[in-house]
Structure to design on (452 residues):
């Protein structure tokens, strides 16, 4: 009784989606996020529907499988604007009205009409650890062994004040919601400071997603201005709207002052100047500029995590692709990341 | 007594609910991929447990030094007239100990505005 009541409540809630954005899929997902019947989630843990939008590379399939398994039950996968890749047996293709398709799948999942999808990866720890070590935790001594399946981070020189503390190296992406879709970065972090960065895979090209208004919205989101970002997104999706009101919203939000001056500067233009230029482009005051190129990985070391995320979101997609040459040959099968 | 019994009963009820939920299989459902930290699809190779510098610690030290001082000085001021010199000496000792923390912070550059 109580459970069926909860299921009814859940059915009436917006469908919780985790979007995986592929090639040319970003604008469509951004427009879908404005639909009242769906709610885009920043992590798979909060979602029930995995929505793959646009074609993704073969090398990203292991990452997609892991994300699929990170969705809690009940879960379902929908492929939109692309065909399901081999290795995703229960996936479904969506044609036409995606919001309705997502809503239907969500309702079926919540009422139990649709069976939850099975795991794609084996339910095994990354390394055998049970029963090993003094307390059965897999470790040896203070730092050795593989406690709970993974080795501990080891100390390294700090860039700020020379304290030798732990350096954590991990791959971020290719579908991390705060990074441009497809971008796979190997970052070494000490606390929240980026020590070194490597691009393992470039982001996906987004042919239709690069209007100035959308770019402004994408930069406002990591600044914590989700409400303002949504207003810009709505105007971009509708292609009409009062730009004066948006101008006031941008000024009053303090976004221009919140970005540290000089952050992410390439060829004499920092993020603050980019934001201002995009907004002027959206208003028809400025024309697109062709700016010199550098490398994204040269901008990131020494930045704090929040600044690094801002820098990664501060370029036009065609320019970002030029800034992200992979640091080594991509054989489509990253051994150390996926 | 009634209060204590209330606390005891609600603690037992909470514990029983927790154990019952675990018994229904609502705990321990996550698979190994669900237990790994979310990195956008990548698999972390290193344990997330790590030591990093808590950089606000010097500000915390300063805050605690001055806050403790005030916290004890208000009640002390009330009894100071009754106790006289004894209270004065005791507060002097207390402030001396606290000022060691402040001096340490000074050496670490807390008071340098950046």
């Amino acid at each position: 009784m109580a459970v069926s009541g909860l299921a009814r409540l859940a059915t009436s809630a917006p469908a919780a989606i985790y979007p995986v954005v592929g090639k040319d899929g970003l604008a469509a997902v951004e427009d879908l996020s404005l639909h009242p019947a769906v709610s885009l989630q920043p992590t798979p843990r909060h979602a029930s529907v995995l929505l793959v939008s646009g074609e993704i590379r073969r090398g990203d399939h292991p990452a997609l499988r892991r994300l699929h398994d990170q969705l809690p039950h009940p879960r379902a996968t929908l492929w939109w604007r692309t065909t399901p890749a081999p290795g995703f047996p229960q996936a479904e293709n969506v044609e036409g009205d995606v919001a309705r398709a997502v809503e239907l799948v969500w309702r079926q999942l919540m009422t139990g009409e649709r069976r939850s999808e099975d795991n794609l990866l084996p339910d095994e720890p990354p390394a055998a650890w049970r029963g090993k070590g003094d307390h059965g935790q897999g470790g040896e001594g203070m730092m050795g062994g593989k406690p709970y399946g993974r080795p501990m981070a080891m100390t390294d020189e700090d860039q700020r004040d020379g304290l030798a503390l732990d350096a954590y190296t991990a791959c971020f992406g290719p579908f991390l919601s705060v990074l441009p879709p497809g971008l796979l970065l190997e970052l070494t972090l000490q606390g929240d400071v980026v020590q070194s960065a490597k691009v393992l895979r470039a982001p996906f090209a987004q042919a239709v997603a690069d209007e100035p208004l959308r770019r402004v919205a994408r930069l406002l989101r990591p600044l914590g201005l989700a409400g303002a970002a949504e207003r810009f997104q709505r105007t971009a999706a509708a292609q009409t709207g009062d730009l004066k009101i948006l101008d006031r919203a941008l000024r009053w939000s303090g976004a221009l002052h919140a970005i540290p001056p000089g952050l992410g500067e390439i060829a004499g233009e920092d993020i603050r100047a980019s934001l201002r230029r995009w907004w002027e482009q959206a208003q028809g005051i400025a024309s697109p500029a062709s700016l010199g190129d550098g490398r994204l990985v040269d901008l990131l070391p020494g930045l704090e995590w929040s600044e690094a995320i801002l820098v990664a979101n501060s370029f036009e997609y065609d320019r970002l692709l030029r800034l992200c040459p992979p640091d080594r040959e991509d054989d489509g099968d990253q051994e150390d990341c996926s | 007594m009634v209060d204590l019994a209330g606390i005891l009963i609600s603690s037992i009820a909470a514990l029983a609910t927790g154990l019952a939920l675990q018994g229904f299989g609502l705990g321990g459902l996550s698979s190994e991929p669900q237990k790994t930290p979310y990195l956008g699809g990548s698999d972390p190779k290193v344990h997330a447990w790590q030591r990093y510098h808590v950089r606000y610690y010097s500000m915390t030290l300063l805050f605690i030094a001055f806050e403790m001082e005030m916290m004890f000085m208000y009640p002390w001021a009330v009894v100071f007239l009754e106790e006289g010199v004894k209270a004065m000496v005791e507060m002097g000792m207390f402030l001396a100990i606290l000022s060691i923390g402040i001096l340490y912070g000074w050496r670490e550059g807390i008071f340098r505005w950046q």
Remarks:
- The radius of gyration of chain A is 22 Å.
